[in-house]
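Hi everyone, sorry if this is the wrong subforum. Our group has a chain we'd like a structural model of before ordering constructs, and none of us has done structure prediction before. Sequence below.
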Amino acid sequence: MASAQSSGGGTELGQFLRARRTQTRPDQVGLTVGPGLRRTPGLRREELATLAGMSIDYYVRMERGKETRPSPAVLDALARALHLDDAEHQHLRELGARAARYAPEPPPPPSRTVRPHLKLVLEALRPSPAYIISRSMDLLAWNPGGLALYAGLADWPATQRNLARYFFLHPTARTLFPDWDELVRGCVARLRSLAGTAPDAPDLTHLVGELLLKSPDFAKLWERYDVVGRKRIQKTFHHPQVGVLTLSGQSMNLEGTPGQRLGVYTAEPGTPDHDAMLLLDAIALEPAGHRDMKPEQQPHSQP
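Answer:
Right subforum, don't worry. Here is the predicted structure as tokens:
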């Protein structure tokens, strides 16, 4: 099972390369495979090294985390050989840069304090469900519909409300989302991408460590090391209180508060989806709220 932490930037770079190599079939990169069984699920190390124009010894050192200063040209060659898309290519470059300057002391986590005017924004967005989340998907502030939309999340203490934790560990999540499999792939890809460049950040290591222990589905997806997930503009909820509703979602970074994002869902007025959204806002059991936590108050596990 993959570890939630890494010992250095080179280790994280090697993990990403190995994951991409073993998930790339020879035919995807123009190689012809002869008869007989292959023990390697994807490309062999020597095949990738040849495609990228480097020695096998050098590539092996990279994959084992022992080569910490790969040049941009080497990383670009590997990206071309593996047919990485733009987001994966950029992630590879960030891992390479981090490996070259890795310091054992992690940077302080971003602020988790939600500014007062943003709480007014959440209230003004009603009846549209809206919330503010941290980089590790902790729910920091919400309006009534923003919390009630994730059925059962209000049953957890405010300090435990995290969307990734909810997707994998709350019993309602799988029935709430008809596309749960796709949803969680995108969720893990987002956390994987973030952890690749900040693997020792406490807010990430606590969450990832918990999910690796408690969710085999999370552990399997984490091992894949995908860093790109599909994002749908519309999302359907099979809500136990208001029925089926399809809402358009939008997420945006907040200025002045790095790591915080605003999420909001809308529906066209006069439609059944909008009526269900109005009902959700009206019956929400918990009013608008927020949580302000210091880094040392981070939740380590689900209650």
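For your construct planning: The first strand starts at residue 130 and ends at 133. Residues 211 and 218 are 6 Å apart (CA to CA).
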